[in-house]
Amino acid sequence: MKCPFCSHADTQVVETRMAEDGDFIRRRRQCAHCEKRFTTYERPDVTFPAVVKKDGRRIEYERAKLLGSMNLALRKRPVSTDQVDGAVERIEEKLLNLGVRELPSSRIGELVMRELKKLDKVAYVRFASVYRSFEDVDDFKNVVDEFRR
User: Fold this and answer.
1) Judgement on whether residues 22 and 62 belong to the same structural domain of the protein
2) What one-character DSSP code corresponds to residue 48?
3) Among 15, 99, 105, 139, which is most exposed with the fewest C-beta within 10 angstroms?
4) CA angle (8, 14, 16) in 5-degree steps
5) Are residues 12 and 69 in the same domain?
6) 114 has pLDDT over 80
């Protein structure tokens, strides 16, 4: 494994842990050259369904896009990286369990909203405002009213 800091090829595994749900392995590594530590995750290589966008285009599923959109909604919110990783894992597990070759991006958006609702209500409203294309204050009010019920 190449060091992300100095690009040196010689790194050592310092610690190995199984994730709580057993779906992946977390490894702490240390570079033999610069001695900095970093974390890697080992998970099975699986094929996710293609994502069908609103305009009909089909693109490959990208974990980084999912994580990026969730992190944007969670920016400056008190939610740990482990909690976000857990939410992404649950979403990916649901995507794989659907057993389909493609699915609409709206389905992924709904799964993200469900997870954000559990993690942080402010992040949920942020994501919903973009995802549902809020037009005015009443749209925000309706989402906040959902929480009051």
Assistant:
1) no
2) P
3) 99
4) 120
5) no
6) yes
Of 124, 126, 97, the residue nearest 112 (C-alpha): 124
* Sequence-ordered list of residues with C-beta below 8 angstroms from that of 100, at least 6 positions apart, any chain: 49
Taking only the tens place, the pLDDT of each residue in 79-109 is 999 999 999 999 999 999 998 999 999 999 9
Answer whether 0.90 is exceeded by the pTM.
no
* Whether residue 108 sits in one domain with residue 38: no
Alpha-carbon distance 114 to 127, whole Å? 11
Where helices occur in the chain by DSSP H, the ranges are 63-73, 81-97, 105-119, 121-131, 137-148
Counting Cβ atoms within 10 Å, is residue 73 exposed (0-12), middle (13-18) or buried (19+)? buried
Residue 41 sits at the vertex; the CA angle it makes with 68 and 102, to the nearest 5 degrees, is 55
Average pLDDT over residues 4-20: 92
The pLDDT of 98-124, averaged and rounded, is: 92
Residues 30 and 50 in one domain: no
Question: Which structural domain, as residue segments, surrounds residue 17?
Answer: 1-44
pLDDT bracket for residue 66 (50, 70, 90) = very high
Q: How many domains does the chain have?
A: 2
